[in-house]
C-alpha cells in the first residue's frame, strides 16, 4: 500500500517544542493547543506568526523529537512492504532542514513532498496514495472526501466529530495495528 504520512504532529513532535518556544517569544503560558491555527491561539496575525517561524526555522524544525512510536511504526510499515510518501505542509525552502531532521533521527524516507501550505489532496492524488496519516482535521476531511481513507492521529487540536473515511488513532501503535488489519 502507498501511504501518505504527514510530518509535523505525526512524525515529528513539533507542537510540544513550538508551544514552549512560542510561549517564551510571545510571553504567554499556553499549555494545550486547542486550535491548529496557532496564530489564532496566540492572538497574532498570520504574517507575524509566519515571520517568527521563518526567523527561527532551523531551531524550530531541528529541536523536536520524533512522535512516540513514529520511527518504529514507519519502519514496521516499510518492512511489511508499504511505501511511505511524506506529504508536509512545509514549503520547499524548508526541505534541507526537514531532511536533516529525518537523518538525525534515522527516520526512513525516499520521498518527501512539500505542499507549501496548500491543499494536500492534489499531491495525494498525484502520488496515488491509498491511505493518509494526518493530524489536521481540515486536511483529513479534504483527503477523505477525495476518496482516500485517513488515519487521524489524536491531538488536542483535532477533537470533534469525524466524517466518513476518517478513523481516529490514539498513537502510532494503533496506526500500525489498524494497517495490519487492512
UniProtKB/TrEMBL annotation:
Q: Which InterPro entries match?
A: 5'(3')-deoxyribonucleotidase, 5_3-deoxyribonucleotidase-like, HAD-like_sf, HAD_sf, Nucleotidase_putative
Query: Which keywords label this protein?
Result: Hydrolase
Q: Which domain of life is it from?
A: Bacteria
One GO MF annotation is: 5'-nucleotidase activity
Enzyme superclass (EC): hydrolase
Write down the EC number.
3.1.3.-
Please name the catalytic residues of this protein: 6, 8
Which Gene Ontology terms describe the biological processes this protein takes part in?
A: deoxyribonucleotide catabolic process
Q: Return any one Pfam family short name.
A: NT5C
Family to which this protein belongs: Belongs to the 5'(3')-deoxyribonucleotidase family.
Q: What is this protein called?
A: Nucleotidase
What organism does the record attribute this protein to? Desulfitobacterium metallireducens DSM 15288
